[in-house]
Amino acid sequence: MPVLTRKTASPYRLALFWLGIQAVWGALLGISLQSRTIELSPRDALIAYGHLATAGAAMAALVQIVVGFWSDARRRGGSRRIEFYLAGSIGGTIALVSFYGAQSFFALTVSFIALQAALNLAIGPYQAIIPDFIEGRRIGVASSWMAALQSAGNAIGALAASFIANARLLAASLSALLLVTSAVTSAHARGLPLREVQSTGPLRVTRPFVDLFISRALVYVGFYTLLGYLLFYVESVLGASTLAAARLQTGILIVTFTVVGALGAALAARPSDRLDKRLVATLGAAGFIVALAVFILSHGFVGIVAATLVAGLGWGIFLVADWAIACRVLPPAAMATAMGLWNLAVILPQIIAPAFTTLVLARFALTAGGQGPRVAFGLALAETLVGIAWLWRLSRRDIGE
Fold first, then answer.
1. Given a cut of 50, is residue 5 above it in pLDDT?
2. Among positive and negative, which fits the CA dihedral 224, 387, 343, 69?
3. Which of 40, 301, 362, 371 is the most buried (most CB within 10 A)?
4. Domains of the chain listed by start with CATH number
Protein backbone atom coordinates (compact mmCIF):
# COMPACT_ATOMS: atom_id res chain seq x y z
CA MET A 1 0.00 0.00 0.00
CA PRO A 2 1.41 3.44 -0.88
CA VAL A 3 2.00 5.83 2.01
CA LEU A 4 0.01 9.06 1.74
CA THR A 5 1.87 12.22 2.73
CA ARG A 6 0.48 15.60 3.63
CA LYS A 7 1.22 18.17 0.98
CA THR A 8 3.27 21.09 2.30
CA ALA A 9 1.90 24.56 1.68
CA SER A 10 4.03 26.76 -0.56
CA PRO A 11 3.96 30.39 0.68
CA TYR A 12 4.82 31.53 -2.85
CA ARG A 13 1.93 29.72 -4.54
CA LEU A 14 -0.52 30.78 -1.86
CA ALA A 15 0.60 34.41 -2.24
CA LEU A 16 0.62 34.44 -6.05
CA PHE A 17 -3.02 35.56 -6.36
CA TRP A 18 -2.01 38.68 -4.44
CA LEU A 19 0.30 39.51 -7.38
CA GLY A 20 -2.65 39.57 -9.80
CA ILE A 21 -4.91 41.53 -7.46
CA GLN A 22 -2.24 44.11 -6.69
CA ALA A 23 -1.36 44.51 -10.36
CA VAL A 24 -4.93 45.70 -10.92
CA TRP A 25 -4.72 48.13 -8.00
CA GLY A 26 -1.24 49.26 -9.06
CA ALA A 27 -2.61 50.23 -12.46
CA LEU A 28 -5.83 51.83 -11.24
CA LEU A 29 -5.20 53.46 -7.87
CA GLY A 30 -1.93 55.12 -8.82
CA ILE A 31 -2.42 56.02 -12.48
CA SER A 32 -5.51 54.94 -14.41
CA LEU A 33 -8.14 56.21 -11.98
CA GLN A 34 -6.56 59.65 -11.98
CA SER A 35 -5.81 59.83 -15.70
CA ARG A 36 -9.26 58.55 -16.71
CA THR A 37 -10.81 61.13 -14.37
CA ILE A 38 -8.79 63.89 -16.04
CA GLU A 39 -9.92 62.60 -19.45
CA LEU A 40 -13.62 62.37 -18.61
CA SER A 41 -13.96 65.19 -16.03
CA PRO A 42 -11.23 67.71 -16.91
CA ARG A 43 -12.81 70.82 -15.35
CA ASP A 44 -12.17 69.86 -11.73
CA ALA A 45 -10.34 66.56 -11.77
CA LEU A 46 -9.08 66.74 -8.17
CA ILE A 47 -12.60 66.95 -6.77
CA ALA A 48 -14.04 64.40 -9.23
CA TYR A 49 -11.27 61.95 -8.34
CA GLY A 50 -12.08 62.33 -4.65
CA HIS A 51 -15.74 61.48 -5.21
CA LEU A 52 -14.95 58.50 -7.48
CA ALA A 53 -12.35 56.99 -5.13
CA THR A 54 -14.68 57.42 -2.17
CA ALA A 55 -17.62 55.71 -3.89
CA GLY A 56 -15.54 52.71 -4.96
CA ALA A 57 -14.00 52.23 -1.54
CA ALA A 58 -17.42 52.39 0.13
CA MET A 59 -18.57 49.47 -2.00
CA ALA A 60 -15.40 47.55 -1.13
CA ALA A 61 -16.07 48.03 2.59
CA LEU A 62 -19.65 46.76 2.30
CA VAL A 63 -18.65 43.65 0.34
CA GLN A 64 -15.81 42.76 2.73
CA ILE A 65 -18.10 42.81 5.75
CA VAL A 66 -20.79 40.64 4.14
CA VAL A 67 -18.47 38.13 2.49
CA GLY A 68 -16.35 37.63 5.63
CA PHE A 69 -19.21 36.03 7.59
CA TRP A 70 -20.25 33.95 4.57
CA SER A 71 -16.70 32.75 3.94
CA ASP A 72 -16.10 31.73 7.56
CA ALA A 73 -19.36 29.77 7.62
CA ARG A 74 -18.21 27.83 4.56
CA ARG A 75 -14.72 27.37 6.08
CA ARG A 76 -16.27 25.68 9.13
CA GLY A 77 -18.01 23.35 6.69
CA GLY A 78 -14.68 22.36 5.10
CA SER A 79 -14.45 24.92 2.28
CA ARG A 80 -11.02 26.19 1.26
CA ARG A 81 -12.68 29.43 0.09
CA ILE A 82 -11.58 28.79 -3.51
CA GLU A 83 -15.02 29.57 -4.91
CA PHE A 84 -14.62 33.18 -3.74
CA TYR A 85 -11.24 33.53 -5.47
CA LEU A 86 -12.60 32.31 -8.79
CA ALA A 87 -15.84 34.29 -8.72
CA GLY A 88 -14.01 37.48 -7.77
CA SER A 89 -11.36 37.16 -10.46
CA ILE A 90 -13.90 36.42 -13.21
CA GLY A 91 -16.12 39.32 -12.15
CA GLY A 92 -13.06 41.54 -11.91
CA THR A 93 -12.04 40.89 -15.51
CA ILE A 94 -15.49 41.91 -16.75
CA ALA A 95 -15.40 45.12 -14.73
CA LEU A 96 -11.86 45.92 -15.92
CA VAL A 97 -12.94 45.79 -19.56
CA SER A 98 -15.83 48.15 -18.75
CA PHE A 99 -13.57 50.54 -16.83
CA TYR A 100 -11.07 51.01 -19.64
CA GLY A 101 -13.83 51.20 -22.25
CA ALA A 102 -15.95 53.80 -20.39
CA GLN A 103 -16.89 56.83 -22.51
CA SER A 104 -18.42 58.98 -19.76
CA PHE A 105 -17.60 59.78 -16.14
CA PHE A 106 -20.84 58.10 -15.06
CA ALA A 107 -19.88 54.87 -16.87
CA LEU A 108 -16.41 55.08 -15.33
CA THR A 109 -17.96 55.39 -11.86
CA VAL A 110 -20.28 52.41 -12.35
CA SER A 111 -17.50 50.18 -13.68
CA PHE A 112 -15.11 51.14 -10.87
CA ILE A 113 -17.72 50.39 -8.22
CA ALA A 114 -18.39 47.02 -9.91
CA LEU A 115 -14.66 46.27 -9.94
CA GLN A 116 -14.38 47.02 -6.24
CA ALA A 117 -17.32 44.71 -5.52
CA ALA A 118 -15.91 41.84 -7.58
CA LEU A 119 -12.33 41.94 -6.34
CA ASN A 120 -13.32 42.36 -2.71
CA LEU A 121 -15.52 39.29 -3.02
CA ALA A 122 -12.20 37.47 -3.40
CA ILE A 123 -9.96 39.65 -1.22
CA GLY A 124 -11.87 39.18 2.04
CA PRO A 125 -11.71 35.35 2.06
CA TYR A 126 -8.27 35.35 0.42
CA GLN A 127 -6.63 37.31 3.23
CA ALA A 128 -7.27 34.36 5.54
CA ILE A 129 -5.14 32.06 3.37
CA ILE A 130 -2.00 32.23 5.54
CA PRO A 131 -3.65 31.15 8.82
CA ASP A 132 -5.77 28.64 6.86
CA PHE A 133 -2.71 26.71 5.63
CA ILE A 134 0.52 28.01 7.24
CA GLU A 135 1.70 27.00 10.73
CA GLY A 136 2.68 29.68 13.24
CA ARG A 137 6.45 29.32 12.95
CA ARG A 138 6.33 30.14 9.19
CA ILE A 139 3.98 33.12 9.38
CA GLY A 140 6.79 35.68 9.06
CA VAL A 141 8.14 34.10 5.88
CA ALA A 142 4.64 33.71 4.41
CA SER A 143 3.86 37.34 5.27
CA SER A 144 7.07 38.33 3.50
CA TRP A 145 5.88 36.61 0.32
CA MET A 146 2.56 38.43 0.53
CA ALA A 147 4.31 41.76 0.96
CA ALA A 148 6.88 41.09 -1.78
CA LEU A 149 4.26 40.00 -4.31
CA GLN A 150 2.09 42.96 -3.37
CA SER A 151 4.99 45.24 -4.28
CA ALA A 152 5.75 43.27 -7.45
CA GLY A 153 2.09 43.35 -8.49
CA ASN A 154 1.89 47.11 -7.92
CA ALA A 155 5.00 47.52 -10.07
CA ILE A 156 3.60 45.40 -12.89
CA GLY A 157 0.32 47.29 -12.83
CA ALA A 158 2.03 50.68 -12.82
CA LEU A 159 4.27 49.65 -15.72
CA ALA A 160 1.30 48.37 -17.69
CA ALA A 161 -0.72 51.56 -17.11
CA SER A 162 2.29 53.72 -18.04
CA PHE A 163 3.43 51.98 -21.21
CA ILE A 164 0.37 50.27 -22.72
CA ALA A 165 -1.46 53.06 -24.51
CA ASN A 166 -4.19 50.85 -25.98
CA ALA A 167 -6.98 50.63 -23.39
CA ARG A 168 -8.28 47.27 -24.61
CA LEU A 169 -4.81 45.71 -24.52
CA LEU A 170 -4.24 47.10 -21.02
CA ALA A 171 -7.53 45.66 -19.78
CA ALA A 172 -6.75 42.30 -21.39
CA SER A 173 -3.25 42.15 -19.89
CA LEU A 174 -4.42 42.89 -16.36
CA SER A 175 -7.33 40.48 -16.70
CA ALA A 176 -5.09 37.66 -17.92
CA LEU A 177 -2.70 38.09 -14.99
CA LEU A 178 -5.60 38.17 -12.54
CA LEU A 179 -7.11 34.96 -13.92
CA VAL A 180 -3.82 33.04 -14.14
CA THR A 181 -2.68 33.87 -10.61
CA SER A 182 -6.14 33.05 -9.24
CA ALA A 183 -6.00 29.67 -10.96
CA VAL A 184 -2.51 28.82 -9.64
CA THR A 185 -3.35 29.72 -6.05
CA SER A 186 -6.71 27.95 -6.20
CA ALA A 187 -5.18 24.76 -7.62
CA HIS A 188 -2.51 24.69 -4.90
CA ALA A 189 -4.95 25.40 -2.06
CA ARG A 190 -7.32 22.70 -3.32
CA GLY A 191 -4.77 19.99 -2.44
CA LEU A 192 -3.74 21.30 1.00
CA PRO A 193 -5.08 20.21 4.39
CA LEU A 194 -6.83 22.93 6.33
CA ARG A 195 -5.29 23.80 9.66
CA GLU A 196 -7.46 22.98 12.64
CA VAL A 197 -8.91 25.88 14.62
CA GLN A 198 -9.13 25.89 18.38
CA SER A 199 -12.78 26.92 18.59
CA THR A 200 -15.80 27.81 16.53
CA GLY A 201 -17.15 30.60 18.72
CA PRO A 202 -18.26 33.98 17.42
CA LEU A 203 -15.79 36.74 16.63
CA ARG A 204 -14.86 38.80 19.69
CA VAL A 205 -13.68 42.34 19.08
CA THR A 206 -10.96 42.80 21.71
CA ARG A 207 -8.98 45.87 22.71
CA PRO A 208 -5.84 44.66 20.84
CA PHE A 209 -8.00 44.14 17.75
CA VAL A 210 -9.33 47.71 17.99
CA ASP A 211 -5.87 49.21 18.58
CA LEU A 212 -4.42 47.27 15.65
CA PHE A 213 -7.29 48.42 13.45
CA ILE A 214 -6.91 52.10 14.34
CA SER A 215 -3.14 52.01 13.90
CA ARG A 216 -3.32 50.30 10.53
CA ALA A 217 -6.12 52.57 9.30
CA LEU A 218 -4.18 55.74 10.10
CA VAL A 219 -1.03 54.49 8.39
CA TYR A 220 -3.01 53.49 5.31
CA VAL A 221 -4.74 56.88 5.16
CA GLY A 222 -1.24 58.29 4.78
CA PHE A 223 -0.34 55.74 2.13
CA TYR A 224 -3.45 56.29 0.02
CA THR A 225 -3.06 60.04 0.25
CA LEU A 226 0.45 59.71 -1.20
CA LEU A 227 -0.66 57.26 -3.87
CA GLY A 228 -3.82 59.14 -4.81
CA TYR A 229 -2.20 62.54 -5.28
CA LEU A 230 1.17 61.47 -6.72
CA LEU A 231 0.16 62.00 -10.36
CA PHE A 232 -1.20 65.45 -9.54
CA TYR A 233 2.05 66.17 -7.68
CA VAL A 234 4.19 65.08 -10.62
CA GLU A 235 2.06 67.05 -13.07
CA SER A 236 2.40 70.28 -11.08
CA VAL A 237 5.90 70.03 -9.53
CA LEU A 238 7.74 68.53 -12.50
CA GLY A 239 5.68 70.50 -15.02
CA ALA A 240 4.90 67.60 -17.35
CA SER A 241 3.95 68.94 -20.78
CA THR A 242 1.15 66.40 -21.38
CA LEU A 243 -1.00 64.02 -19.38
CA ALA A 244 0.78 61.10 -21.06
CA ALA A 245 4.15 62.43 -19.86
CA ALA A 246 2.86 62.88 -16.31
CA ARG A 247 1.41 59.37 -16.40
CA LEU A 248 4.77 57.95 -17.55
CA GLN A 249 6.76 59.79 -14.88
CA THR A 250 4.31 58.73 -12.18
CA GLY A 251 4.48 55.15 -13.39
CA ILE A 252 8.28 55.18 -13.13
CA LEU A 253 8.06 56.46 -9.55
CA ILE A 254 5.46 53.85 -8.55
CA VAL A 255 7.50 51.06 -10.11
CA THR A 256 10.58 52.27 -8.26
CA PHE A 257 8.59 52.44 -5.02
CA THR A 258 7.24 48.91 -5.40
CA VAL A 259 10.48 47.27 -6.52
CA VAL A 260 12.32 48.74 -3.55
CA GLY A 261 9.31 47.74 -1.44
CA ALA A 262 9.88 44.12 -2.42
CA LEU A 263 13.48 44.46 -1.23
CA GLY A 264 12.26 45.90 2.05
CA ALA A 265 9.86 42.98 2.45
CA ALA A 266 12.67 40.48 1.88
CA LEU A 267 14.89 42.21 4.44
CA ALA A 268 12.10 42.19 7.03
CA ALA A 269 11.14 38.51 6.70
CA ARG A 270 13.39 36.99 9.37
CA PRO A 271 13.38 40.00 11.72
CA SER A 272 9.57 39.78 11.80
CA ASP A 273 9.84 36.21 13.11
CA ARG A 274 12.67 36.96 15.56
CA LEU A 275 12.28 40.56 16.78
CA ASP A 276 9.51 42.65 18.29
CA LYS A 277 7.12 43.12 15.38
CA ARG A 278 6.12 46.55 16.65
CA LEU A 279 9.73 47.69 16.30
CA VAL A 280 9.98 46.34 12.75
CA ALA A 281 6.74 48.12 11.78
CA THR A 282 7.96 51.35 13.36
CA LEU A 283 11.27 51.31 11.50
CA GLY A 284 9.41 50.83 8.24
CA ALA A 285 6.93 53.63 8.96
CA ALA A 286 9.77 55.95 9.99
CA GLY A 287 11.31 55.59 6.52
CA PHE A 288 7.95 56.35 4.94
CA ILE A 289 7.53 59.48 7.09
CA VAL A 290 11.01 60.78 6.22
CA ALA A 291 10.25 60.24 2.53
CA LEU A 292 7.02 62.26 2.77
CA ALA A 293 8.99 65.16 4.27
CA VAL A 294 11.42 65.00 1.34
CA PHE A 295 8.51 64.99 -1.14
CA ILE A 296 7.10 68.14 0.46
CA LEU A 297 10.43 70.00 0.30
CA SER A 298 11.59 68.78 -3.14
CA HIS A 299 11.42 70.86 -6.31
CA GLY A 300 13.25 68.57 -8.74
CA PHE A 301 13.35 65.01 -10.03
CA VAL A 302 16.46 63.97 -8.01
CA GLY A 303 14.84 64.71 -4.66
CA ILE A 304 11.62 63.02 -5.73
CA VAL A 305 13.45 59.84 -6.77
CA ALA A 306 15.36 59.79 -3.47
CA ALA A 307 12.10 60.15 -1.55
CA THR A 308 10.56 57.35 -3.59
CA LEU A 309 13.42 54.96 -2.77
CA VAL A 310 13.20 55.64 0.96
CA ALA A 311 9.40 55.42 0.95
CA GLY A 312 9.41 52.09 -0.89
CA LEU A 313 11.97 50.50 1.41
CA GLY A 314 10.10 51.63 4.51
CA TRP A 315 6.72 50.55 3.18
CA GLY A 316 7.95 47.05 2.32
CA ILE A 317 9.29 46.60 5.85
CA PHE A 318 6.05 47.87 7.37
CA LEU A 319 3.89 45.51 5.27
CA VAL A 320 5.66 42.38 6.52
CA ALA A 321 5.31 43.35 10.18
CA ASP A 322 1.70 44.39 9.56
CA TRP A 323 0.74 40.97 8.16
CA ALA A 324 2.66 39.12 10.89
CA ILE A 325 1.01 41.08 13.72
CA ALA A 326 -2.45 40.52 12.27
CA CYS A 327 -1.93 36.77 11.97
CA ARG A 328 -1.04 36.73 15.70
CA VAL A 329 -3.79 39.02 16.98
CA LEU A 330 -6.81 37.94 14.91
CA PRO A 331 -8.84 34.88 16.04
CA PRO A 332 -8.27 31.76 13.88
CA ALA A 333 -11.80 30.44 14.34
CA ALA A 334 -13.30 33.40 12.48
CA MET A 335 -10.30 34.42 10.41
CA ALA A 336 -12.03 35.59 7.24
CA THR A 337 -14.55 37.63 9.20
CA ALA A 338 -11.73 39.08 11.30
CA MET A 339 -9.59 39.67 8.21
CA GLY A 340 -12.56 41.32 6.52
CA LEU A 341 -12.96 43.70 9.46
CA TRP A 342 -9.16 44.13 9.67
CA ASN A 343 -9.06 44.91 5.95
CA LEU A 344 -11.55 47.71 6.52
CA ALA A 345 -8.46 49.42 7.90
CA VAL A 346 -7.24 49.40 4.27
CA ILE A 347 -10.59 50.08 2.58
CA LEU A 348 -11.84 52.86 4.85
CA PRO A 349 -8.64 54.85 4.25
CA GLN A 350 -9.45 54.68 0.54
CA ILE A 351 -12.61 56.58 1.48
CA ILE A 352 -11.11 58.81 4.15
CA ALA A 353 -7.93 59.82 2.28
CA PRO A 354 -9.59 61.42 -0.77
CA ALA A 355 -12.64 62.65 1.17
CA PHE A 356 -10.62 64.33 3.94
CA THR A 357 -8.00 65.71 1.57
CA THR A 358 -10.68 67.03 -0.79
CA LEU A 359 -12.40 68.71 2.16
CA VAL A 360 -9.17 70.44 3.21
CA LEU A 361 -8.19 71.45 -0.31
CA ALA A 362 -11.66 72.77 -1.14
CA ARG A 363 -12.08 74.55 2.20
CA PHE A 364 -8.84 76.48 1.76
CA ALA A 365 -9.08 76.83 -2.07
CA LEU A 366 -5.90 74.83 -2.73
CA THR A 367 -7.02 72.83 -5.79
CA ALA A 368 -5.06 74.90 -8.31
CA GLY A 369 -1.30 74.73 -8.88
CA GLY A 370 1.30 72.71 -7.03
CA GLN A 371 0.35 73.73 -3.52
CA GLY A 372 -2.55 71.23 -3.24
CA PRO A 373 -0.49 68.03 -3.63
CA ARG A 374 2.11 69.31 -1.13
CA VAL A 375 -0.61 69.96 1.42
CA ALA A 376 -1.96 66.46 0.76
CA PHE A 377 1.47 64.97 1.48
CA GLY A 378 1.68 67.00 4.69
CA LEU A 379 -1.58 65.44 5.81
CA ALA A 380 -0.19 62.00 4.88
CA LEU A 381 2.89 62.57 7.05
CA ALA A 382 0.80 63.49 10.09
CA GLU A 383 -1.58 60.56 9.59
CA THR A 384 1.24 58.03 9.33
CA LEU A 385 3.00 59.41 12.39
CA VAL A 386 -0.10 59.13 14.57
CA GLY A 387 -0.85 55.65 13.22
CA ILE A 388 2.52 54.14 14.06
CA ALA A 389 2.50 55.78 17.51
CA TRP A 390 -0.89 54.13 18.13
CA LEU A 391 0.59 50.69 17.38
CA TRP A 392 2.55 50.85 20.64
CA ARG A 393 -0.69 50.59 22.59
CA LEU A 394 -0.32 46.86 21.81
CA SER A 395 1.82 44.99 24.34
CA ARG A 396 4.23 42.16 23.52
CA ARG A 397 1.71 39.78 25.03
CA ASP A 398 -1.03 41.14 22.73
CA ILE A 399 0.99 40.16 19.67
CA GLY A 400 1.97 36.74 21.00
CA GLU A 401 5.60 37.45 21.90
1. no
2. negative
3. 40
4. 11-192+205-391 (1.20.1250.20)
